[in-house]
Design a protein that fits this description.
By secondary structure, the chain is of the alpha/beta class. The protein is 46% helix and 18% strand. The strands form four sheets. It has an eight-stranded mixed sheet with strand order 6-3-2-7-8-9-13-14, with helices on both faces.
Length: 450
């Protein structure tokens, strides 16, 4: 079987639409970027270079001449969507450790107009993010020495202040390298563009990738899977990027955090304990679907910062995305960072309800208790952290700090000790002690004991 590359495009009737030149440089090869954002850049004919920052993918992508396949599968307004897109916008795949001079030469290229990167809200791979900003800072320092103007820096993540965070990280490296006040001032002139990327997009697991390669009749080591829904919103002028303009990211962020992520939190916490593997499994699980519906409509939405009528169209879309049976959206991927999801999506409603009624909302506490039980046997294994569900390993996708905190727990602990240990651990809850939330400890203890 042949490997995907430029030489076989005509044989497989793949339409050629390679951009003529590199306009942007992407630091990092996250699934959210390669499965969704780069697909939009490909549609727009915008050429980029991808810089490998610890992912170990540059060699594979380079061997395919920067080409890779994204399978878009799902439904839009009741109509099935299945699309295979051979992404052609990546004109170079660079590994700074293997070819630093190539990266520095790119830094001196006046045709580079923007940089693109992603800050993971979960913080699952901190070493990669540190390397990402170190490499980017070195790239920018070389560009500054060449006397070029600063490029735009488009930063994707889940915070309206993500641009400031990116600049802070870059300046820290500049200070550590004693680059001086002139470089710091040059960085300060760089246009920071915060953006929100909202799409369930993942790199295909080996089993699914092998099946799809057989279907395509060519080898592709970089297959990605994506849902039809996708939002790339940038704050301010997109300036030629294929993104949606918004004056402020606060509203789309609030919708995602308080509604879509709330559903992910409930399903990711309860689903594995009920034997569900994917989001669509959870939606077919009638007791869980009922729990989810009441949690979102009766416990999340009343405390969200927008009117029910305003949220209704978005909620309909959320449930359609959850139900997608055409993509295997595994819970361990789609609901990555359960502690993070609890902080962003569930705790605001739990706090508000407890303050108003003197007791937290029943269904969200059920999900919180399920999460505690699910994560209580987390241990580091040879391939990362996992827990045990019905005798099988289940991946735990959290930050190293969270995994370290979970390492002292066990499902064999009595209910009160387990609830106390998790709710009181301020390292899990951004410095908070959740025992102080009215009625929460007693409800969790009762759930775990039952």
């Amino acid at each position: 079987m042949k490997t995907l590359c430029e030489a076989i495009m005509d044989d497989y009737e793949i339409e050629r639409r390679r951009p003529a030149s590199i306009s942007g440089v992407q630091f990092g090869m996250d699934g959210a970027l390669m499965g969704f954002v780069d697909r939009l850049l490909d549609d727009a004919g915008t050429g980029i270079a991808c810089v490998d920052c610890g992912e170990g993918l540059a060699e594979k992508l380079g061997a395919q001449d920067g080409l890779y396949t994204v399978f878009v599968r799902g439904e839009v307004k009741g109509e099935a969507v299945t699309r295979e897109q051979v992404v052609q916008c990546v004109l170079r795949a660079l590994d700074p450790e293997a070819d630093d001079e190539a990266l520095m030469a790119l830094a001196r290229d006046a045709g580079v107009r923007f940089l693109l990167t992603y800050i993971d809200p979960v913080g699952e791979f901190p070493a990669r993010e540190t390397l990402r900003f170190a490499v980017m800072a070195r790239f920018l320092a070389e560009r500054w020495r060449a006397g070029l103007t600063p490029p735009r820096l488009v930063v994707a993540g889940e915070s309206a202040a993500i641009g400031e965070e990116a600049l802070r990280r870059l300046r820290r490296f500049g200070a550590e390298w004693h680059a001086g006040a002139a470089f710091d001032a040059w960085l300060g002139c760089m246009e920071m563009v915060p953006s929100l990327v909202d799409s369930l997009s993942f790199r295909a697991d080996p089993v699914e990738a092998a099946r799809l390669c057989t279907r395509m009749n060519y080898q592709d080591a970089m297959i990605h899977l994506a849902e039809p829904y996708g939002l790339w919103a940038v704050e301010g002028d997109p300036n030629g990027l294929p993104a949606v303009k918004t004056d402020s990211l606060e509203k789309p962020l609030a919708l995602k955090r308080r509604l879509f992520d709330a559903g992910l939190f409930v399903m990711g916490s309860v689903g594995p304990l009920r034997g569900d593997r994917t989001l669509s499994d959870c939606m077919k699980d009638e007791p869980l679907r009922d729990l989810l519906g009441h949690a979102v409509m009766d416990e999340i939405l009343p405390y969200a910062p927008f009117a029910r009528e305003e949220a209704a169209p978005y909620l309909i879309e959320c449930f359609a995305r959850y139900e997608n049976t055409m993509n295997e959206n595994r819970l361990s991927d789609a609901c990555r960072g359960l502690i993070h999801l609890a902080q962003r999506a569930a705790l605001p409603a739990i706090d508000a309800c407890a303050a108003r009624d003197g007791a937290p909302p029943r269904r969200l506490v059920t999900a919180l208790s399920a999460m505690i039980l699910l994560l209580s046997d987390t241990r580091m294994g040879p391939e990362g952290a996992d827990t045990v569900v019905e005798g099988r390993a289940y991946p735990v996708r959290e930050s190293p700090e969270v995994i370290a905190a979970l390492g002292g727990l066990s499902s064999d602990m009595d209910a009160e000790s387990l609830a106390y240990a998790v709710l009181s651990d301020s390292t899990l809850w951004n410095g908070r002690d959740l025992r102080r939330t009215e009625g929460l400890l007693d409800m969790v203890v009762a759930d775990l004991a039952g």
